[in-house]
Hints:
Strand order of the largest sheet: 1-2
Radius of gyration: 14 Å
Largest sheet: 2 strands, antiparallel
Oligomer: single chain
Amino acid sequence: xxxxxxxxxxxxxxxxxxxxxxxxxxxxxxxxxxxxxxxxxxxxxxxxxxxxxxxxxxxxxxxxxxxxxxxxxxxxxxxxxxxxxxxxxxxxxxxxxxxxxxxxxxx
Length: 107
């Protein structure tokens, strides 16, 4: 994602693409509604954060920039630093925190 998707914004291809993010693509949901992610609980947390970003910032350019920032840390094996994306982009942290607490990021 971090290597290829940004290019569609740079070259204008985004104008003819209907891009939608699916944060929980490889997750499994058990009968008792427990979500298990392919790469464990850290991935589940970041899936929730990214799902909340889609809700909090519905504009593609806004949530894409945040998700790209988070995924860049994941790609570089620095996922524990993802929260720095808020200050790096000038985004407020509280709306994402509220979304996570509300459970909306799991819907």
